[in-house]
Design brief:
The structure is a homodimer. By secondary structure, chain A is of the alpha+beta class. Chain A has a single domain, classed as 2-Layer Sandwich (Alpha-Beta Plaits). Helix content of chain A is about 35%, strand content about 30%. Chain A has 4 helices and 5 strands; from the N terminus they run βααββααββ. Chain A has a 4-stranded antiparallel sheet with strand order 2-3-1-4, with no helix packed on it. The longest helix of chain A is centred in the last third of the chain and has 10 residues. The first copy, chain A, is globular, with a radius of gyration of 14 Å. The model of chain A has no long low-confidence stretch (mean pLDDT about 95). Chains A and B meet through strand 1, helix 1, helix 2, strand 2 and strand 3 of A and strand 1, helix 1, helix 2, strand 2 and strand 3 of B. Strand 2 of chain A pairs antiparallel with strand 5 of chain B.
Chain lengths: ~110, ~110
Amino acid sequence: MNRIGFVLKVRQDRIDEYKAHHRKVWPEMLAALREAGWHNYSLFLRADGLLFGYFETPHDLATATAQMAATEVNTRWQEFMAPFFESPDNARPDQMLMELEEVFHLA
Amino acid sequence: MNRIGFVLKVRQDRIDEYKAHHRKVWPEMLAALREAGWHNYSLFLRADGLLFGYFETPHDLATATAQMAATEVNTRWQEFMAPFFESPDNARPDQMLMELEEVFHLA
């Protein structure tokens, strides 16, 4: 398993809606993530909208993202979520993930 | 197990040294973390020094930090690491952790 960390930026004025949607993520989106090998996946939010993602996968981030991108439900979810993020030209958030370098790990 | 996410800020001009020290964390520091219930603990770094920490613990962050603070090796490690962080008055990094809110989790 690889451990992946990434950041995104949620628009500060839409944080409450973003959180509400993430309390009820579509079951078919959750199923697609599981099938694409996204495990132990958490999203953490800072009060200013900085969003940190952590998950574990047998793949690398590019492959894990590509496997999701091949699903129809991911296209719908990313288009639904795009307005909640700070991104140029309302880009899909899954195309904006900035991967972080893991510099320490203790099992 | 609780999942904890936090952020800190490493001084950009000291990132290389910070990374080098984290490739060889003192064995007694690793042992103290394990004994204090810090599991699956990763640190992720962005190029500008933003540092994201993730770990799993039977405790909350305050308790996990307090258990480490009670050890002599942690005092030495935090004083060693303090100059690598952006913090007022060279505060110990373990007193500067900003906890993030987990807004989503998929097992």
